[in-house]
Design brief:
Helix content is about 45%, strand content about 10%. It is α/β, with parallel strands linked by helices. A five-stranded parallel sheet has the order 2-3-1-4-5, with helices on both faces. Helix 1 (about 25-50) runs parallel beside helix 11 (about 230-245) and helix 2 packs across helix 11 (about 230-245). It binds adenosine monophosphate (AMP) and magnesium ion (MG). The site of magnesium ion has 4 residues, from loops.
């Protein structure tokens, strides 16, 4: 899965990444593997919680219908909800806007033993904000530097960060939007504004390329995940996370009490 990782300071042209890539896997093979990864992730997250040392932050970014919700549902299936926090970042409130753009985000970073998932993130402040010119260029252009430094702070204070851009094609998005339009159980997800964003596809691509080129660091790398096939998308994200958590070499701590010779007595 390392081939999807963007090395630091690399010019990225997203047109050279195939959204329909499936790594020569078949869907049924991938589903077996995902099931296995789900179980491993479940155990690793329990270990993360038991050890209570590391903090893990997963950032998910994508165009509309890219599959952020699907990843959360399928990759973290079976993971104990007690140890996982999902934070979704929509339009900032007035109070958010009265602060610096990292203020609302910082509050949702994981604590010791926790895994946090960002469904959208501080990157919106160099994506939608840049594409729509919500702040002047001189303001958003220095944010790549802030973001790198802020993420470095988190990492130096014990956080492990992995960032995923779910890469879909405009054709696949058209199908998924049409599905939302046609299916009464999915219509609630459809906003007219989504069509306005779609019309700005090339601008978003450029904004994502800038993000990937400038903020994939040794301490907080980005992965470009082929996302036209949901099953492959899930497999890539799950594989990277399992590999990352295994790399932490966690162990179950002993009890805080001395348990030598303890036998369970009859209930009183
Ligand atoms: P959804 O993920 O479909 O619930 O939509 C959330 C919306 O909030 C998207 O249109 C985002 O672009 C928008 N959003 C998220 N963060 C920001 C931000 N910092 N500034 C402006 N809009 C944002
Ligand atoms: Mg939406």
């Amino acid at each position: 899965m390392d081939r999807y990782r963007i090395p630091p300071d690399t010019a990225v042209d997203l047109r050279r990444f195939d959204p329909a890539d499936t790594g020569d896997l078949k869907e049924d093979q991938a589903e077996d593997r995902l099931e296995d990864l789900n179980h491993r992730l479940e155990t690793l997250q329990e270990l993360l919680h038991a050890e209570g040392k590391h903090k893990v932050l997963v950032v998910l970014q994508a165009m509309d219908t890219g599959g952020k919700d699907g990843v959360i549902r399928h990759v973290f299936e079976g993971v104990n909800p007690l140890g996982v926090n999902v934070a979704s970042f929509g339009r900032p409130t007035e109070q958010d806007l009265a602060h610096d753009y990292l203020w609302r985000v910082h509050a949702h970073t994981p604590g010791a033993g926790q895994l946090a998932i960002f469904n959208r993130s501080h990157y919106e402040d160099v994506l939608v904000v840049r594409v729509h010119g919500l702040v002047p260029k001189e303001v958003w252009s220095r944010r790549y530097r802030h973001i790198n430094e802020w993420e470095r702070l988190l990492v130096e204070e014990g956080t492990t960060i992995r960032k995923f851009y779910l890469h879909i094609s405009p054709e696949e998005q058209a199908e998924r939007l049409q599905e939302r339009l046609d299916d009464p159980t999915k219509r609630w997800k459809f906003r007219l504004g989504d069509l306005d964003e779609r019309a700005r596809w090339a601008d978003y691509r450029a904004a994502y390329e800038a993000v990937l080129s400038q903020t994939s660091t040794t301490w907080a790398p980005w992965y470009v995940v082929p996302a036209d096939r949901k099953w492959y998308r899930n497999l890539v994200v799950a594989s990277v996370l399992v590999q990352t958590l295994e790399g932490l070499q966690m162990g179950y701590p002993p009890s805080e009490d001395d348990l030598t010779g303890v036998v369970i007595p009859p209930a009183g």
